[in-house]
From TrEMBL:
<dbReference type="Pfam" id="PF10604">
    <property type="entry name" value="Polyketide_cyc2"/>
</dbReference>
<dbReference type="InterPro" id="IPR023393">
    <property type="entry name" value="START-like_dom_sf"/>
</dbReference>
<dbReference type="InterPro" id="IPR019587">
    <property type="entry name" value="Polyketide_cyclase/dehydratase"/>
</dbReference>
<protein>
    <submittedName>
        <fullName>SRPBCC domain-containing protein</fullName>
    </submittedName>
</protein>
Amino acid sequence: MTEPIVIESITAEIDAPADFVWQVLVDYPRYPEWNPYTVQVSTTLDIGSPIDLTVPAMDGSDATFVNREYVRVVDPPRHLRYDTDDDVPGIFAFRDQWIDPLGDDRCRYRTTDTFSGAHAERLLAATGPWIKAGFDAVARALKHRAEQLWTSGP
């Protein structure tokens, strides 16, 4: 077995409270308004339940596909985790999204995806840069969205 491979986003420092950023992060019906990498999400966020993530095609076309994973950790406002379970033979992946408070009105966001299994290295050779670019885009977009909503008020 090979060592797990981790893809990590940039870290976005956000001028809004962690609780508020968490609410933006899990406001899935509004993802089409701001999230460039996960354009739609369907989930109850119950532990063990599916989370269907609609993402754009890697070729840059208008096509999308649904990636089903399973919710494992919901720890507001700090940590969200979901994984592929054993749905894809030879590949196991889990994604963590972290929000770290930096004071009353600031926080830091980052996400990681950890891949393991017999086919993980081959999969990431083909998709790793696309995943990294998508994660970075989400971090930037979440920062922009949360700060915009925070400064505009309710």
